[in-house]
Specification:
By secondary structure, the chain is of the alpha+beta class. The chain is 28% helix and 19% strand. The radius of gyration is 20 Å and the shape is globular. Strands 1-4-2-3 form a four-stranded antiparallel beta sheet, covered by helices on one side. The protein contains four helices and four strands; from the N terminus they run H-E-H-H-E-E-E-H.
Length: 107
């Protein structure tokens, strides 16, 4: 190409990309503020699948995602088995999230 056809490189400001959770909650307006809950030693949820827990049906809260051993699992399957140290992201009304916390901790 002749030099006259060259284009000048321009710096593009890079803004940090939002995390997946932020993106998801912005796309689903009205689902509430995401609350993180860590599965602790001795918690009812430890060792159980999401199907066994039935969080949404029993409390109305939704589990948006799980972090297991540092790996994010967005929109987890009902077959996902929870382990001590897993981080769950819950959304819903204040009451439903509190009921989900109680279920996860004590059954």
């Amino acid at each position: 190409l002749p030099e006259a056809n060259f284009t000048e490189e321009m710096p593009v400001p890079l803004t940090p990309l939002p995390d997946k959770l932020t993106s998801m909650t912005q796309m689903l307006a009205g689902i509430g503020t995401p609350i993180r809950v860590v599965v602790g030693e001795g918690d009812y949820a430890a060792g159980r699948t999401l199907a066994e827990l039935g969080v949404r049906g029993r409390t109305g809260a939704t589990i948006l995602g799980i972090t297991h051993d540092g790996v994010a699992i967005p929109a987890p399957s009902k077959l996902e088995r929870l382990a001590v140290g897993d981080i769950l992201v819950l959304v819903g009304t204040t009451e439903s999230v509190e009921a989900a916390r109680e279920l996860l901790k004590g059954g």
